[in-house]
Specification:
330 residues, 23 strands, 38% strand, five-stranded mixed sheet
């Protein structure tokens, strides 16, 4: 996946000059307190999903130029404990997301488009989550996906934990849309996804809360959480997204109380924040009231920036040019 130099430089500078705030939670040594992916094969972790069958295990995958593989990473050690090879699918093109739906079914989204919306179709792969953690080959079902209003780039695939319906959020600088798939995916025909609601973010990943009442969407520099509202999403506030070199993934912990954020790169960190509303609509705190305050900004950043950081960031953007950023290809 190609990325603009200005974006990466900006992310590094923001991280370097950010002043820690008291609102940031203290991290534990591992697990729900965060971990580092130590497998040298995983250099482009682009999706993250908490295992339903194996506590403390998180599934991830590389972005592109890898193969039909997903990896089970132990959050206590950061080590890969199982590599699963998908059988029955073609060679993946640009795998961007992973989600687990009802019945412990894993969905893998080969939905990226390095040509920014020219692929005639993309794919979703579905396989049962292995009951035993070991290197193995598992047969997967491959689904062909098209969009009702034309091809596009996307990095976010989510499966509703109650209905099993699959959704995709496309990736656009000025905000994209939530696309809804058919009630049941068909392996014999084309599955057309239709836009149902705008999303105010340049989205790199998304996740449902375990109870299905909240939708969390992240970007490079921030995130937004929504009341699911039967698919007619309502914005509740901003997520406390950690500043990362290249933030690509998000998942809820199995109990829904935490959000875990992943980044690409070798030895990539997975960082943790408390989930807004305690992780769902049944929490005691009122909707929209959390440490992440609501805002109309499209995916602002967490933390505070020093004056020097802002000045340097502006200089970097001036050197590289806003035009180059707008010509970005995922």
């Amino acid at each position: 996946m190609r990325r603009p130099s200005a974006l990466l430089a900006g992310a590094l500078l923001v991280g370097a000059f950010t002043v820690p705030t008291a609102a940031l939670p203290a991290f534990a040594a591992g697990g729900d307190g965060g971990f580092t992916i130590k497998d040298p094969r995983i250099k482009e972790s682009s999706g993250l999903a908490a295992s339903h069958l194996h506590p403390g295990i998180y599934w991830t995958h590389n972005d592109s130029d890898d193969g039909p593989y997903i990896y089970a990473v132990d959050s206590r050690t950061g080590k890969t404990v199982a590599t699963v090879t998908l059988k029955g699918v073609g060679r993946p093109r640009d795998v961007e997301a992973i989600s687990i739906g009802p019945g412990n079914e894993i969905y893998v989204g080969d939905i990226g488009d390095n040509l920014d919306g020219t692929w005639p179709h993309v794919w979703i792969y579905k396989l049962p989550e292995p009951k035993e953690l070991k290197d193995q080959t598992v047969r997967a079902t491959q689904y062909v996906v098209k969009y009702a209003d034309g091809a596009r780039n996307a990095e976010s695939l989510i499966v509703h934990p109650k209905t099993g319906r699959v959704y995709i959020i496309d990736k656009k600088e000025d905000g994209g849309h939530l696309f809804e798939g058919p009630p049941h995916l068909s392996a014999s025909g084309t599955n057309v996804f239709k836009p149902v609601a705008p999303v105010d973010l340049w989205a790199t990943d998304a996740a449902f809360s375990p109870d299905g009442t909240r939708l969390a969407v992240r970007g490079y520099f921030g995130g937004i959480y929504y009341d699911w509202n039967g698919g007619r999403i309502k914005r509740l506030g901003r997520l406390d997204v950690p500043l990362q070199r290249q933030g690509e993934s998000i998942t809820y912990s199995v109990d829904g109380t935490k959000l875990l954020y992943g980044s690409e790169g070798a030895d990539s960190p997975v960082q943790v924040r408390d989930a807004p509303d305690g992780g769902g609509g049944d929490a005691k705190s009122p909707a929209g009231k959390s440490s992440s305050s609501p805002s109309d900004n499209k995916g602002g950043t967490s933390g505070k920036l020093t004056t020097g950081a802002v000045a340097v960031l502006v200089a970097v953007l001036a050197v590289f040019g806003v035009g180059r950023l707008r010509r970005r290809r995922s």
